[in-house]
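Inputs:
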Amino acid sequence: MKKKHSIFYHITIFVITQLAWLLLLGIWIYWYVINYILLKNVGEKISPQAIYEGTNIFPFVGGIVLLVAISFSISLIFRQLNVQLKLNNLYDNFIANITHELKSPLSSIQLYLETLQSRDVPAQKRNEFIELMTKDANRLQNLINSILEISMLEQKKVSHNYQVYDADNLIEKLVGESAEQFNLPPGTIKVEGHADCNCAADKSALKIVFDNLIDNSIKYTRDKAEISIRTFRSAKNILIEFKDNGIGIPAQELKKIFNKFYRIDDKNIPSVKGTGLGLYWVREIIKNHGGKITAASKGQNAGTAFKIELPIYKVSKKRFINRLIRQTIESTGKSIKGESDYV
Ligand code: ADP
């Protein structure tokens, strides 16, 4: 296997390269000064009238500019390398996580199948096994689908299905569907406020956003999760705030959690399963809607709040939304519900 170098190895290489360039710069200055004096002396002896009296500093400055430019380029290459290295590390973690996520439901299905094959299992137990196997198979399918869909999203191959919705109705529906999907006891999610406006949204994509945020709130809460979803509006945007009573997020991690494959490496965090793809996916979907998402937390065990901003239909980002709707019409051949005058 190829040996992996640590970040310090690359820093050392970078420092050595920079020192080499500085040395070269020194040699260049030294060489220039010596030769300049030498040539001037020789010139004065051979043909004093041809000597240009002023100092011609252009070759000198040119040489320095060239060397500085090369040194700057090396810094840029190093920065790029650094980013790549971090991404590689995250990718390695992702492979470890995803392997675990794929293996555990598969092993459990295998175990149930072996038991069913080798033993005479009573009918009730058999049904129980089948139900558990179906759950595991669904888990596998969801995971594989999510990876495929993220890859399609990155390659801009997703088919658009943007429709115009009453924002409050849409949010209520999405919350209801997620609560049902996660089998949440009544009262776990509180929905407050209203936006009283329309938005252009891809409902199934927004469902992924709601599912991921609600799933995370459950995963990263030690006791019983309490989630509050508040909707309101500003002049141009619909604002949806998801608050939970979970383990919270340290300030320095609040931006990083949206990076691809990123998972917080903290021993206090309960060992929950994950791939580090959820919030990246959420952010990409929100960006595709012309909106943005941010996270806030007062720290450990103080809960987390995610705030989504979506442009209000016909008020904000008109050209952008127009394009989304046009793409939907082109890909589905259907006009937008009740809003065909818009495009
Ligand atoms: P995953 O949950 O698969 O690790 P995500 O992209 O969904 O990946 O989340 C990235 C990280 O952000 C998680 O590993 C977790 O540490 C942190 N996180 C996300 N949501 C919450 C939340 N509601 N409360 C606390 N931490 C969270």
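Helices lie at 7-46, 58-118, 123-154, 167-181, 203-219, 278-288, 318-332. Flag for discussion at group meeting.
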